[in-house]
Amino acid sequence: MTVLVQTRGRVRIVSITRPEVRNAVDPQTAHALFEAFVAFETDMSVDVAILTGGQTVFCAGFDLKAAAGDLGDNWQNTVAIADSWQNAQAQPILGPMGPSRLMLSKPVIAAVEGHAVAGGLELAAWCDMRVTCVWRRGLRCLGCSVGVGVCP
Fold first, then answer.
1. Sign of torsion, CA 46 107 56 63?
2. Is the pTM of this model over 0.85?
């Protein structure tokens, strides 16, 4: 399982669970993230989602080992945008990182602890709000940004 989906009350928590590759997203993980957020959008029992990657790294981007060779070529073809695609809300399609082409009606919060690199930053920026946590000299510093991707 590369993505863990939990519900606590009216909150959906979606966690990337690939710590052995710093939560890098491969095609299987991208599909799982996409499906998790499509299900979140249609589930009226939840109001908000949190996307997280764990305590050491949020997401290291796309898995470059998975991108090498035929798998990478096939993935690029899978996520190519068709000329007929015009409405992200009416026609949700899979993005290279999974949900990053979705336009949801409910908020998603990125709980970013550790690095968000390349496509990981794309996932964080896709979220409506980002809450970051960094350990420095034993002190825990929290930052928050809403809307445009801003680093505290």
1. positive
2. no
